[in-house]
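Weekly modeling sync, notes
Attendees: AB, CL, MP (scribe)

Item 1: holo prediction request
CL wants a bound-state model with flavin-adenine dinucleotide before deciding which constructs to order. AB pointed out that an apo prediction alone won't tell us much about the pocket. Agreed to run with the ligand included and paste results into these notes for async review.

Input as submitted:
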Amino acid sequence: MRHLSEGRSIADPYCVIVAGSPDVVVVGAGVVGAACAYFLATSGARVQLIDRSFVASGSSGACEGNVLAWDKELERELPLALRSADLWADLARTLPDGFEYDRKGSIVVAETEAELCASAERARLLATLGVRGEVLDAEALRREEPHAAHDLPGGVLYPGDAQLEPRLATIALTRAAVARGATLTTDRTVERIMRRRDGAVTGIGTSAGAIAAGAVVVAAGVWTPALVETAGLSVPVTPRKGQIVVLERSPVRFRRKLSEAGYVAAVEAGDDAALQIAMVVESTESGTALLGSSRQHVGFDREVDIDVAGAIARRAARFFPVLDGARALRVYAGLRPLSPDHVPIVGPFAEAPNLCVATGHEGAGIGLAPATGELVAAWHAHAPTPVPIEWFSPDRFAPAALAVS
Ligand SMILES: Cc1cc2nc3c(=O)[nH]c(=O)nc-3n(C[C@H](O)[C@H](O)[C@H](O)COP(=O)(O)OP(=O)(O)OC[C@H]3O[C@@H](n4cnc5c(N)ncnc54)[C@H](O)[C@@H]3O)c2cc1C
């Protein structure tokens, strides 16, 4: 990749790249764009991070902050998740701004003996791949979480899983990127991506004029396909709505991050599936508790549906009866960027080698953001990556690739 910040001017019929133009424009200041900007700036690139609204105004401000390994696709997503978990731990130690990072461990709670057997089986498989888990019987589950319902047979504790506050984490990454020389531009919509006849990208068109750049990274979450289309390319990401119920502060505390064993089935359900609800419960540093979550295909609708919120609360109370009658402080909804094979889409297009996308993380974009940013920065610098970026290529959905697979 050319670095264009050495004072040269490169003129072409479409765009002029002058001294001071960024090496890379990153579109979208959600957690993924912020992580890309941070790692790119750390590697020495001149970065401009642009958002049409404010930092964490998209899905990264309407989600939970689980950093989990146990629920990942095993071949490509798990190695990325393990790398990302280590990076989050490092970032929590090294970034000046805190983001309530807590490697508190998570418990997958089984509702039936069959679920407990299946969860134990998965734990054995994950252990062979570097994820430590401990099977809990009913008594051990209640020692860990005294509020667990008495008929629950047990679960699996994954001590390496963590929790963080996603808005604070996105802001911390953004501020650290700026401290390393990145420019942040908010309230600026990117309207199009500009390409030359040979396919290369020359920059972007925004609501306040064009910006020339050596490369463009689109990390615009569920809005990525619309922007990539302006360059004549496609990314098959669709929005998958989810809601979270925030409870009022109360003395009831949950020690671990809690998810029901049926969560993976809800995540993997077909793209046209009806409403899915799987229990996820966490206590936060401020003393509230978050109850999740739902999965629905309802386009770009981000309105709260109070019936869905009620169903989420009932599901949580099934596992933790102490929550029956708990009072909600607020409810919010966000859109998960879903890819057809449930694996993130990260990397350049063969047709436009200096246009990179970073999206498709569905319900795991917070957890996977640092490793994604690291991959994108390594791509830009032609540096080796801990995990092959080709695993996540947008080209795997091109018609020719699909015909072969
Ligand atoms: C209910 C719920 C719970 C979740 N829980 C978790 C969890 O516990 N752990 C986890 O890892 N993940 C979780 N997720 C998933 C996570 O929220 C997403 O994967 C992640 O936030 C995606 O981040 P992003 O940066 O790709 O997108 P976003 O955060 O949506 O950022 C995209 C940004 O692009 C900007 N943008 C879009 N178009 C343009 C344009 N044309 N010009 C300029 N800017 C533009 C937007 O304003 C936005 O700020 C959850 C999601 C939901 C909905």
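Recorded for review: Confidence is low (pLDDT under 50) at residues 1-17.
Action items: CL to compare against the apo run; MP to circulate these notes.
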